[in-house]
């Protein structure tokens, strides 16, 4: 049986594992700076919107007392026997 893939070439290879997140990009530092500025601007816009919503929120009145809870007492069953 012939083996078209030469597995002997892979015996000496070693996987390098790190606990760091991999960063994929186009290899340009300028893109990252622009993305960082855009992300900061979007974050600023988002939090400004959230502050505006909180400042314009209605003040709700507190709920009144809840209705009494109906409970079941063991042994207090009443049945009508005919």
Describe what this molecule looks like in 3D.
By secondary structure, this protein is mostly helical. The chain has a domain at 26-54. The protein is built from 1 helix and no strands. The radius of gyration is 34 Å and the shape is flat. The relative contact order is 0.04. The model has no long low-confidence stretch (mean pLDDT 76).
Question: Could you give a quick summary of the protein structure above?
Answer:
The protein has 82 residues and is mainly α. Helix content is 33%, strand content 0%.
H-E order = H
Shape: flat
Regions with little confidence, pLDDT below 50 for 5+ residues:
none
Overall SS class: mainly alpha
Q: How many DSSP E strands?
A: 0
Radius of gyration equals: 34 Å
Count of DSSP H/I helices: 1
* Largest sheet composition: none
Beta strand %? under 5%
- Helical fraction: 25-40%
Report the mean per-residue pLDDT as an integer. Answer: 76
Question: What brief labels describe this structure?
Answer:
82 residues, mainly alpha, 1 helix, flat
List the helices and strands and how they pair.
Layout (H helix, E strand, L loop, with lengths): L28 H27 L27
């Amino acid at each position: 049986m012939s083996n078209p893939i030469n597995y002997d070439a892979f015996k000496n290879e070693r996987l390098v594992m790190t606990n760091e997140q991999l960063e994929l990009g186009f290899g340009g530092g300028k893109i990252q700076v622009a993305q960082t500025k855009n992300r900061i601007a979007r974050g600023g816009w988002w939090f400004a919107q959230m502050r505006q919503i909180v400042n314009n929120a209605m003040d709700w009145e507190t709920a009144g007392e809840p209705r009494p809870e109906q409970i079941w007492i063991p042994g207090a069953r009443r049945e009508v026997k005919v």
